[in-house]
């Protein structure tokens, strides 16, 4: 019982990171109608980019985040036309094509990563990694690690920026228009190809940047991708496909499940629990926790 | 001068041919109507003009420039807009956001406030509902948003795809009133309708489509007295 607040707080701080991953994933699905199975690999590649950048430059990884974002945003922007081509060819079922294509990508990225980065786990050394606060209140006490707190603040910042971008700029108006009615968006003058490329760039950049953070909080390895793809999928499906407002609750739930398994049970069973919960909730409410997905 | 000119446009969806060498022209400031029954190819004709469908043959010219094969947003940039069949609003956006989406184009962005006021003046009903989510509106209100959104683009040519479809007689009257007043303001209009009788009275020139071909054309008065048209569309 003494560990309960600890588990909750840890879970919320971890969940905040999943919000970021899931929002990008959700945006790409909304605008491009692609379920990107390579999301975990973008996270992994970003994490390693941060790891090596830090090794060469010895700059605090927190400060490297914008650089990682910028590089990967450009990569994503340049990469998107390829996905667009795969989807808009005269092959049937674009949703399936997208799945197969990004699944292939994820296998390729993972294979390359294992060749170049090896099989070992790494962590990105950060000045914040060792610091922590100790809080005590009555019978309860908990340790708040500074790097996790930094992760939470980062997640809030990115969510805030994305919210502003989507709700208060013309770019965001175009993105939302595309997601809600592609033909009508075109009639309004929204450039589908260009806007999609921007969205994909932002998503890849954010995923990669989050990878660095995960490397600071947990660990990195070339084969970490699928776990995070599943997490992204879990959060988005639980929130309701395409229902962004449901993302935080689903992400916090995932974080809390994870930290409970870490503290009370065997972390090896986390994925099992994640799937069990996902199936159960989808069985009861196929359109997500709030019944507002598609 | 012809603002819009189509020559021999032919469209097929996969193996199904839907348009056979459609040709027509719209002069500046004119209200030209395209009439015909369900499935005659009217909607496809509009889609071919604004770039939502690519013809395999034929050309569409706008102000002398060939626009066939351009992507839809480039056609929109030229000042052509379509009020699509079934409204096609952004369902999760509010009324005001839908209208503002109409001024996404560079050419319209500068006059966003002014055009918004104008849209609310044309449809005072929308001003009352500006924060309501579009999918919760009635059919008539949605049609007002669709027309308002198109006007926000500050278009030079506005095309309507069956704007009166599924509306109550009172609202049909309202829609035709708006079309008439836009025409009076000098806007070039291309109107697709099934409401043949009312449209003929309004239009400067009419084309009649059947099974993917244009079968007749003439002024509304000429067509009204044509026995074949009378029999097919007016029922007497």
Explain briefly what this protein structure is:
With 294 residues, chain A is mainly α.
Poorly predicted runs of chain B are: none
Reported by name, the CATH topology of chain A is ABC transporter involved in vitamin B12 uptake, BtuC
What's the helix count of chain B?
A: 11
Helix and strand content put the structural class of chain B at alpha/beta
Q: Kindly state the percentage of residues in helix of chain B.
A: 25-40%
Largest sheet composition of chain B: 6 strands, mixed
Q: How many domains in all of chain A?
A: 1
Kindly report the spatial arrangement of strands forming the biggest sheet of chain A: 1-2
Largest sheet of chain A: 2 strands, antiparallel
Strand content of chain B: 25-35%
Largest interface: A-B, 18 and 26 residues
Structural class of chain A: mainly alpha
Number of helices of chain A: 11
CATH C-level category of chain A: Mainly Alpha
Measured distance between first and last alpha carbons of chain B: 36 Å
Helix content of chain A: over 70%
Task: Going across the biggest sheet of chain B, name each strand in turn.
Answer: 6-7-8-3-9-10
Rg of chain A: 19 Å
Give the CATH architecture of chain A: Orthogonal Bundle
Q: Would you identify the regions of chain A where 5 or more consecutive residues have pLDDT less than 50?
A: none
Please trace the helix and strand order of chain B, writing H or E for each element.
Answer: EEEHEEHEHHHHHEHEHEEHH
């Amino acid at each position: 019982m003494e560990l309960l607040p600890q588990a909750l707080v840890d879970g919320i701080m971890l969940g905040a990171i999943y919000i970021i991953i899931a929002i990008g994933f959700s945006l790409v699905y909304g605008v491009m109608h692609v379920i990107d199975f390579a999301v975990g690999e973008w996270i992994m590649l970003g994490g390693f980019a941060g790891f090596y950048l830090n090794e060469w430059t010895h700059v605090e990884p927190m400060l490297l985040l914008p650089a990682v974002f910028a590089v990967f945003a450009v990569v994503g922007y340049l990469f998107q036309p390829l996905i667009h081509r795969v989807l808009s060819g005269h092959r049937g079922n674009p949703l399936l094509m997208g799945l197969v294509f990004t699944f292939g990508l994820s296998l390729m990225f993972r294979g390359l990563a294992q060749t170049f980065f090896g099989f070992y786990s790494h962590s990105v050394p950060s000045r914040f990694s060792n610091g922590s606060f100790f809080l005590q209140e009555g019978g309860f006490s908990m340790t708040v690690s500074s790097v996790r707190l930094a992760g939470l603040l980062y997640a809030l910042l990115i969510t805030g920026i994305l919210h502003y971008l989507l709700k208060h700029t013309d770019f965001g108006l175009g993105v939302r228009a595309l997601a809600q009615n592609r033909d009508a968006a075109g009639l309004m003058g929204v450039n589908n190809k260009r806007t999609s490329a921007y969205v994909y760039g932002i998503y890849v950049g954010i995923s990669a940047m989050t990878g660095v953070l995960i490397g600071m909080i947990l660990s990195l390895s070339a084969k970490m991708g699928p776990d995070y793809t599943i997490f992204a999928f879990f959060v988005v499906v639980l929130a309701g496909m395409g229902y962004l407002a449901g993302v935080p609750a689903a992400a916090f739930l995932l974080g809390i499940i994870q930290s409970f398994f870490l503290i009370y049970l065997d972390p090896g069973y986390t994925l099992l629990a994640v799937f069990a919960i996902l199936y159960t909730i989808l069985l009861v409410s196929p359109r997500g926790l709030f019944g507002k997905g598609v | 001068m012809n603002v819009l000119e189509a020559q021999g446009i032919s469209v097929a969806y996969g193996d199904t041919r839907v348009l056979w060498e459609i040709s027509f022209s719209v002069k500046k400031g004119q209200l030209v109507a395209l009439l015909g029954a369900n499935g005659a190819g009217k909607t496809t004709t509009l889609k071919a003009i604004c770039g939502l469908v690519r013809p395999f043959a034929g050309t569409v010219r706008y102000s002398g420039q060939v626009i066939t094969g351009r992507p839809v947003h480039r056609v929109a940039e030229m000042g052509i807009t379509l009020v699509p069949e079934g409204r096609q609003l952004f369902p999760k956006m509010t009324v005001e956001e839908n209208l503002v989406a109409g001024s996404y184009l560079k050419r319209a962005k500068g006059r966003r406030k002014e055009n918004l006021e104008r849209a609310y003046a044309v449809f005072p009903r929308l001003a009352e509902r500006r924060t309501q989510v579009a999918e919760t509106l009635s059919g008539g209100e949605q049609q007002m948003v669709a027309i308002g959104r198109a006007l926000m683009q500050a278009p030079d040519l506005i095309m309507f795809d069956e704007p009166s479809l599924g509306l109550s007689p009172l609202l049909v009257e309202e829609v035709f009133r708006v079309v008439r007043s836009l025409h009076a303001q000098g806007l070039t209009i291309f109107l697709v309708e099934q409401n043949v009788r009312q449209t003929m009275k309004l239009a400067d020139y009419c084309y009649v489509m059947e099974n993917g071909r244009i079968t007749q054309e003439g002024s509304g008065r000429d067509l009204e007295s044509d026995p074949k048209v009378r029999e097919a569309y007016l029922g007497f």
